[in-house]
Amino acid sequence: DIVMTQSPDSLAVSLGERATVKCKSSQSVLDSSDNKNYLAWYQQRPGRPPKLLIYWASTRKSGVPDRFSGSGSGTDFTLTISSLQAEDVAVYYCQQYYSTPGSFGQGTKLEIK
Amino acid sequence: QVQLVQSGAEVKKPGSSVKVSCKASGGTLSTYGLSWVRQAPGQGLEWMGGIIPIFGTEKYAQKFQDRVTITADESTSTAYMELSSLRSEDTAVYYCATNLWDGSGSAINYYYMDVWGKGTTVTVSS
Question: Residues of A numbered 36-65 whose beta carbons fall under 8 angstroms of chain B's beta carbons: which are they?
Fold first, then answer.
């Protein structure tokens, strides 16, 4: 199984500042046949189910604010929130779907400083 | 967009089974894959398995292979997850979620999970 490792485990950022979450996979999740990275990001607010933010590593789901962006390729990925808002307090998970089971990172807890 | 409505909280004894339902409203399951993901208290997300309702074919994570059964009833747009031989470590919130998918037969790939149910809390306690 592919192991996903996120860093840091927790992060405190001031309102309006940039937040960056890293995700590393134990093997590449880039499929050379279609040149797509099989990587998604989810947001889970307290007491709520996860919410899909980004898929194919950098495609923002419709309705997700454009302050959220995803980047990276192969084994190293980043979720960036360009200007932190109060409603962004949550745990963020990356997930690879290159192979089944689609494994998740351990999560990064984002708080307001 | 389809919404997923899950059944209510359950309290079960160790060694028993639980069956959780997930009904699609505002659409059908026929165009989706459907996965089950669980989250133990204070822990992360864990994919248990999934089903492609139009084929009726399931795929399970090896960890749950011997204890979980996922089914779907297209006529009612409802999917089910049954977990047997419950133990205290199975105490968790169980989510269903729609999947993008492709492939056929035994070579079906489950992609990202788009729409999620609100979750069903299962507590296993003697």
Answer: 38, 40, 42, 44, 48-52, 55, 61
Beta strands in A1-113 (DSSP E): 4-7, 10-13, 19-25, 30-31, 36-37, 39-44, 51-55, 59-60, 68-73, 76-81, 90-96, 108-112
Q: Is the Cβ of A97 closer than 8 Å to some Cβ of chain B? A: yes
Splitting chain B (126 residues) into consecutive groups of 10 residues, what average pLDDT does each group show?
95 98 89 94 96 90 95 93 98 96 83 96 97
Q: Which residue of A has its CA nearest to B120?
A: A49
Say if CB A29 and CB A2 are below 8 A apart.
Answer: yes
Ranges of residues in chain A whose predicted pLDDT is under 50: none
CA B14 to chain centre: 20
Structure tokens belonging to residue B44: 């992360």
Residue B30 DSSP one-character state: T
